[in-house]
Amino acid sequence: IFNAFTEVTSVIYFSSASRVNSLTRSLSITSAESAFEKAQGERVTLPCTFVLSEEDVGTLDIEWVLIPADIQKKEETIILYSGDRIYNHYYPALSGRLQFTSSDPKSGDGSVDILNLKSADTGTYQCKVKKAPGVESQKIQLNVLVKPASTKCSIEGSQEIGKDIILKCASQEGTPLLYYDWRRVVTGTQGLPATSVLNKNTGELLLKNASKDYSGTYNCVASNRVGTDECSVELNVTPPINTAGVIAGAILGTLLGLALLAFLVFCCCKKHREKKYEKEVHHEIREDVLPPKSRSSTARSYIGSNRSSLGSMSPSNMEGYSKTPYSQVPSEDFERASGQNQTIASSKSDIAHKIGDITVV
């Protein structure tokens, strides 16, 4: 009885296992690649090929989702094939850059292409294939790197014999880790000087105790896992500059400049004093000189004074005054014009009549 029970149990177990295996293998994803590393601007194909069986009788759905790095966030659908239709409006960041590789995904190829890759496209993508009762999925890691770009070379330190010189190289763009390599471009060789020390992580090349032989063109290559970029710089090692002569020339130039400045200030001050003196002299002359008297007022004042003198005369001294030459008027106050002579003559006649009247009295 025990043996019979054991045989029946074995038959049931193997029958159940066989059914489970048949269901599990009814739909399978055959693509094996699970990680891709691409450069920005390139194109990538995320594979998702599958095989169906006769037992898969439901509607075929092929769904691609983006799994966020933060596990607390929900995954986002980016493209879907269902009921012989394609829906690709779910994820705006990939709008116009995401498409199914095959024009007929139900044929067994649910792969997708992402065009013009960006660094933001980095992430984990998952392909889900459903056709009841079968369900399969596969995750793919995509890493988009930026090539080195805008690499610049420079020289730090004095390019003199015996000095330590540092050649620097740095890329403005590029996904870490970036590595830098220097080489000297010389006819027949590309080796660096024996005293040079290279730091591939920082891009600095130290040239100790530089000599004239160190002169030449140096080339730097920046690289990461997806690309390279380079730049070059010209090094010209020269003898030390005569610092004493430079200092003396600088001092002499400074003194000459100060002298010229002092001369200009002196000229300006002198010119200002001359203008000020001219104004003061002109002002004093105008205050000291009285305005000239008019000729008519001078004549009237002279005649008036003679009349006052005549009014105070007595008969005893009239004889002397009668002989006074009244016709002599100061020549500087009168012009000998005919009109003025007539005026003077009439004045003399009036005086004579007055003298006559005084005599009669």
Automatic annotation (TrEMBL):
Pfam family, one: Ig_2
Record GO biological process: homotypic cell-cell adhesion
Region spans: Disordered: 288-346
Record-level Gene Ontology MF annotations: cell adhesion molecule binding
Predominant subcellular localization, coarse grouping: membrane
TM helices/strands, residue ranges: 246-269
Biased composition (Polar residues): 294-330
Limits of the Ig-like domain: 25-143, 148-238
InterPro entries assigned to the protein according to its UniProt record, in alphabetical order: EJ_Adhesion_Regulator, Ig-like_dom, Ig-like_dom_sf, Ig-like_fold, Ig_sub, Ig_sub2, Ig_V-set
Top-rank taxon, per record: Eukaryota
Keywords on record: Cell adhesion, Cell junction, Cell membrane, Disulfide bond, Glycoprotein, Immunoglobulin domain, Membrane, Receptor, Repeat, Signal, Tight junction, Transmembrane, Transmembrane helix
Gene Ontology CC entries for this record: adherens junction; basolateral plasma membrane; bicellular tight junction; intercalated disc
Membrane topology: Single-pass type I membrane protein
Compartments reported by the entry: Basolateral cell membrane; Cell junction, Adherens junction; Cell junction, Tight junction
Keyword Cell wall biogenesis/degradation: no
Protein name: Ig-like domain-containing protein
